[in-house]
Amino acid sequence: MDGLDHVVAGERADHLDAPSREYQLPALPARTAIGTASAIALPVAVAGTIGYIVNGWSIAGLPGFSLGFIHLPALGAIVVATVLIAPFDARASHRLPVPILKKALAAVHYAVTLRSLLAWA
């Protein structure tokens, strides 16, 4: 059920998981909570991708180079961008003070939530 809310909201797992992990385990340092939540993003993304492939497998009229509901050129672009940005993201999370990390995470979470709400309106 944890992955379903991320699929519906259209966001990565770490936006919702990091704050909840820190709340559930107050002794867990914020950097560890953020790192753990980021690591959780990979299996959630793989499971979601498999679900989109399986559910869209028999749908007619999808664009070329699609595997179910997954458009392979877009998937490739997302993977390349993620691999290129990940080292910078990791360095920044280790260099920035924890209060700034928390505020940045909250700002991204609110922006994604607002985008989702506006899309549904």
Please give a structural write-up.
The protein is mainly α and 121 residues long. It has one domain. It has five helices and two strands; from the N terminus they run αααββαα. It has helices spanning 2-9, 14-24, 30-56, 72-95, 98-120; strands at 66-67, 70-71. Strands 1-2 form a two-stranded antiparallel ribbon. Strand 1 (66-67) and strand 2 form a beta hairpin. Helix 2 crosses helix 3 (30-56). It is elongated and about 50 Å long.
Query: What does the main sheet amount to?
Result: 2 strands, antiparallel
What's the total number of strands?
2
Q: How many independent structural domains?
A: 1
Strand order within the widest sheet? Answer: 1-2
- In terms of quaternary structure, what is this? single chain
Provide key terms for this protein.
121 residues; mainly alpha; two-stranded antiparallel sheet; 77% helix; elongated
List the helices and strands and how they pair.
Layout: H1 2-9, H2 14-24, H3 30-56, E1 66-67, E2 70-71, H4 72-95, H5 98-120
Antiparallel strand pairs: 1-2
Helix pairs in contact: 2-3
